[in-house]
Specification:
By secondary structure, the chain is an alpha+beta fold. It has a domain of about 55 residues. It contains two helices and five strands; from the N terminus they run E-E-H-E-E-E-H. It is elongated.
Length: about 90
């Protein structure tokens, strides 16, 4: 039991256990979602790189990085800043 500021006793509620993620990621399409829907990106780093939350592939913005990263499987995807600049020409 714990006491409040006014000296009253109060029982503490037990903490709920945190849910652990499942071993297998959830798939909408039943196969590789990234090939059909596209990658789910983490936050972009200052270096212009990120990873896909689902398939964990390395992703880089070709406009932010002048040279291809050392990972040969890295996927080029425009970051939100450069993607917005590319689409603003239609306005």
């Amino acid at each position: 039991m714990a006491q409040t500021l006014w000296g009253e006793t109060k029982t503490r509620r037990p903490r709920r256990s945190r849910q652990h993620p499942t071993a297998a990621p959830y798939s909408i399409t039943g196969s590789n979602d990234c090939e059909i829907i596209g990658h789910t990106l983490n936050h972009w780093s200052l270096a212009g790189t990120t990873t896909c939350i689902d398939c964990h592939v390395n992703i880089f913005c070709p406009e932010c990085i002048s040279q291809h990263p050392t990972d040969p499987q890295a996927v080029p995807v425009l970051c939100s800043l450069h993607e917005e600049r590319q689409h603003n020409h239609a306005i």
